[in-house]
Specification:
This protein has 384 residues and is α/β, with parallel strands linked by helices. Helices cover 40% and strands 16% of the residues. The protein is built from 15 helices and 13 strands. The strands form two sheets. It has a seven-stranded parallel beta sheet, with helices on both faces. A six-stranded parallel beta sheet has the order 10-9-8-11-12-13, with helices on both faces.
Length: 384
């Protein structure tokens, strides 16, 4: 009789590679995945190739080794770099690469004989240039599995980049529905921003052109013509924050828009909101939408990327055209005028998130990909 751990349950040594652990959607997904893998008995490390970022301490506190191995320039895309000996030292069973580090990390992993290389594409490239496509295609050739976080993104990988369909699949992002849940305890944040009895619309995203907060602010100016009892809360930080603040001032909205910055108390912040809004011009699978859904919030979002799949065939929110402030304002006013509808939609959002987008489902999907026995995608290319 054979004793010991079966190959399917044997703990793995997994090394995540990404540009940094700044506070943003992809990085939060990576951190949540790493922490969950540690809880399931795996040895997980994270290598940052640009900077550590504010989430690094959270990773270390959860038992994840974080290293900064700066890998600048284009040359590491062509030949193994300082990243290769760093990976050899870790000797991982799997290198799991995330957007922004693909070819550099795949090249280094293959150079030192890493058995399994997985890459997750979290969103479309900001500029679809020929050189970028060449880099991504080269990375695909060095990768066992190329994962998209939404079906439209998977289609882009196949149709635009030419990644072989048999090595692509969709793994949907997952959220901790115990941490993000409806509940009490919202008064502190409302008191902090002096919300009073106003309805709170909230957007959680980095201040970046792709998130298009400018369109939301313009839509909110239209909302304020009809509703004086609403405050817009913008949570996050980034390079566009000051330009958005200037736009708020020009539109006379300074007393009606709160810039809340990055927060460490996001479950409580979501519970303080009455509605969630996202104005992006492109998305993969938005973690902020999932967190809002888990928190029981109705959603108004632009119909881009995987957002329509998140909200479902009977949407638990309103989908509007991107970069259209009038359409966004109409969607917001529609829900603001329907108290019962908002409550029903929030409960449906919570139920859908709990049923379809759990953190555990995402983690198990990646565990399957990490093991060499995973040789083919399930029908439709989805494992979550």
């Amino acid at each position: 009789m054979t004793t010991g751990t079966s190959p399917a349950s044997k703990p793995l040594r997994v090394e995540m590679v990404l540009p940094s652990l700044v506070l943003a959607g992809m990085e939060v997904v990576t951190l949540n995945l790493a922490k969950a893998l540690v809880r399931r008995g795996h040895d997980v490390g994270i290598t940052c190739i640009e900077e550590e970022g504010s989430l690094a301490d959270q990773a270390r506190a959860a038992g994840v080794e974080v290293r900064l191995i700066k890998t600048p320039g284009l040359w590491p895309n062509v030949v193994p770099s300082v990243l290769a000996p760093a990976l050899r030292q870790r000797d991982p069973d799997v290198v799991h690469i995330h957007s922004g580090a693909w070819l550099k990390a795949a090249r280094a992993a293959r150079a030192v004989g890493v058995p399994r290389v997985v890459h997750t594409v979290h969103g479309l490239p900001e500029r679809d240039r020929f050189r970028i496509r060449l880099v991504l295609r080269a990375g695909a050739r060095l990768t066992d599995w190329v994962v998209a976080v939404s079906d439209p993104l998977r289609g882009y990988l196949i149709d635009r980049l030419g990644v072989p369909e048999h090595k692509t699949l969709t793994v949907l992002n997952g959220v901790d529905t115990e941490r993000f849940a409806p509940g009490q305890g919202t008064s502190a944040f409302r008191q902090e921003i002096q919300a009073g009895n106003r309805l709170l619309l909230g957007m959680v995203a980095r201040f970046h052109p792709v998130k298009n907060q400018a369109s939301l602010v313009e839509a909110f100016a239209l909302v304020r013509r009809n509703r004086k009892d609403v405050t817009l809360v913008l949570i996050g930080d980034g390079p566009e924050r000051e330009s958005i603040r200037e736009l708020v001032g020009r539109l006379g909205l300074t007393s009606d828009v709160v810039f809340a910055g990055n927060r460490t108390d996001m479950p409580e912040v979501y519970r303080a909101l009455d509605m969630f809004v996202l104005s992006s011009i492109t998305e993969g699978t938005s973690m902020s939408i999932l967190e809002a859904m888990a928190s029981g919030l109705p959603i108004v979002a632009t119909d881009v990327g995987g957002t329509s799949h998140l909200l479902g065939p009977d949407p638990v929110g309103r989908l509007v055209a991107p970069s259209d402030p009038d359409a966004l304002a109409d969607g917001l006013l529609d829900l603001l005028g329907d108290d019962d509808g908002r409550a029903l939609m929030g409960r449906a959002a919570r139920d859908r998130c709990h049923s379809h987008f759990s953190l555990l489902a995402m983690v198990k999907s990646y565990e399957d990909l990490y093991r060499p026995s995973t040789d083919a995608a399930t029908p439709g290319g989805r494992v979550a």
